[in-house]
């Protein structure tokens, strides 16, 4: 049984994509939007993002069957608490936060007694704001549900059906496990990109203009990730601290091994390592999670 009235709270990249995808793919759905930022609400109205844009969180939620919280993870508790007084008792609440254990805790504290089916669509870009969204963002991407123990299975099924309707493939996981998996597949790569881009721009003997001019040597691919939203990523690292620090420790040990191999001229060790990593790229392409064309399909005309 799908939803006919949903409320999207937070109309940035992910919220606007949820609104667009729901309206494009679920017949007869009515989408109400709300964002704390009046300028975002103004733009959302101007581009006709939702059927209605509310000026108040309570107005947005009063007749919702499903609420989708699309705010930074550090703001989830506050956003949920603002809805609480008006939220219908039988409404289901989901979210799109990039870390789950801390978000589940915050939502449970803010909405006691409500049905919560937290989610993380593993899809995004480096853009932010209400004009950054697009209806196909979730197509063939995974959406991981992390329902707290004891959640009504029928509610989990309905939320799974909602994400499938938006084009996603759905998987269910415990919140802590999700946070460890994403620490290595998403959070650590972002931290590395933020570091490399910072390091390159701090070098004294290489000028900024040279870094930019020769960026096609690899650097520019890190800059896409390092251009991601600062608020979102500050919150992710604060919220998933333990798992990120653990993965960072392992990464540092592996980096030290490569450093040693370079220092001692161990070409075979380097070659074997790079052969394994190349195979991982092939698996990602084979599973439809990236473009098979060289250089991510960029045109070189
Ligand atoms: P975004 O483009 O910055 O949009 C977030 C919006 O939420 C902003 O307009 C923000 O307004 C608004 N907001 C903040 N606090 C609010 C509150 N209490 N009530 C209502 N609105 C509020 O961010 P995004 O990239 O869409 O990310 C949203 C969520 O999706 C995050 O939890 C993130 O972890 C998750 N996610 C992101 C990606 C990605 O690639 N970007 C992928 C998967 C999941 P202000 O700017 O005024 O604060």
TrEMBL record:
A Pfam family found in this protein is: PDH_C
- Domain (Prephenate/arogenate dehydrogenase) ranges: 4-292
Q: Which InterPro entries match?
A: 6-PGluconate_DH-like_C_sf, NAD(P)-bd_dom_sf, PDH_C, PDH_N, Preph/Arog_dehydrog, Prephen_DH
Q: Which reaction does it catalyse?
A: prephenate + NAD(+) = 3-(4-hydroxyphenyl)pyruvate + CO2 + NADH
Asked if the Swiss-Prot or TrEMBL record annotates the protein with the keyword Oxidoreductase, the reply is: yes
Which E.C. number(s) belong to this protein?
A: 1.3.1.12
Question: Which keywords has UniProt assigned to this entry?
Answer: Amino-acid biosynthesis, Aromatic amino acid biosynthesis, NAD, Oxidoreductase, Tyrosine biosynthesis
Pathway note: Amino-acid biosynthesis; L-tyrosine biosynthesis; (4-hydroxyphenyl)pyruvate from prephenate (NAD(+) route): step 1/1
Q: Which GO molecular function entries does the Swiss-Prot or TrEMBL record give?
A: NAD+ binding; prephenate dehydrogenase (NAD+) activity; prephenate dehydrogenase (NADP+) activity
Gene Ontology biological-process annotations = tyrosine biosynthetic process
**Alphabetized SUPFAM superfamilies for the sequence:** 6-phosphogluconate dehydrogenase C-terminal domain-like (SSF48179), NAD(P)-binding Rossmann-fold domains (SSF51735)
* PROSITE patterns hit by this protein: PDH_ADH
Q: Which family does it belong to?
A: Belongs to the prephenate/arogenate dehydrogenase family.
What's the name of the protein? prephenate dehydrogenase
Source organism (scientific name): Sphingomonas spermidinifaciens
Q: What is the lineage of its organism?
A: Bacteria, Pseudomonadati, Pseudomonadota, Alphaproteobacteria, Sphingomonadales
């Amino acid at each position: 049984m799908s939803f006919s009235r949903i409320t999207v709270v937070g109309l940035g990249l992910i919220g606007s994509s949820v609104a667009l995808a729901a309206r494009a793919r679920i017949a007869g759905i009515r989408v109400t939007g709300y964002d704390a930022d009046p300028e975002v609400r103004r733009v959302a109205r101007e581009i006709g993002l939702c059927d209605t844009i509310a000026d108040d969180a309570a107005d947005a939620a009063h007749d919702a069957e499903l609420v989708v919280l699309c705010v930074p993870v550090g703001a989830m508790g506050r956003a949920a608490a603002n809805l609480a007084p008006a939220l219908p008792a039988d409404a289901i609440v989901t979210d799109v936060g990039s870390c789950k254990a801390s978000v589940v805790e915050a939502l449970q504290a803010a909405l006691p007694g409500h049905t919560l089916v937290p989610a993380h669509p593993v899809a995004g870009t480096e853009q932010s704001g209400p004009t950054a969204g697009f209806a196909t963002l979730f197509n063939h991407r995974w959406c991981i549900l992390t329902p707290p123990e004891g959640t009504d299975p029928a509610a989990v099924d309905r939320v799974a059906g909602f994400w499938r309707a938006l084009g996603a493939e759905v998987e269910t996981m415990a919140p802590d496990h999700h946070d460890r998996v994403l620490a290595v597949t998403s959070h650590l790569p972002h931290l590395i990109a933020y570091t490399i881009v910072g390091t390159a721009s701090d070098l004294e003997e290489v000028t900024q203009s040279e870094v930019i001019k020769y960026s096609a040597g690899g650097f520019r691919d890190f800059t896409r990730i390092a251009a991601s939203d600062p608020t979102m990523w500050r919150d992710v690292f604060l919220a998933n601290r333990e798992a990120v620090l653990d993965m960072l420790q392992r990464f540092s040990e592996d980096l030290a091994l490569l450093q040693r191999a370079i220092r001692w001229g161990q070409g075979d060790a380097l070659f074997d390592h790079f052969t394994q990593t190349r195979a991982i790229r092939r698996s990602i392409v084979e599973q439809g999670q990236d473009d098979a064309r060289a250089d991510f399909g960029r045109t070189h005309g």
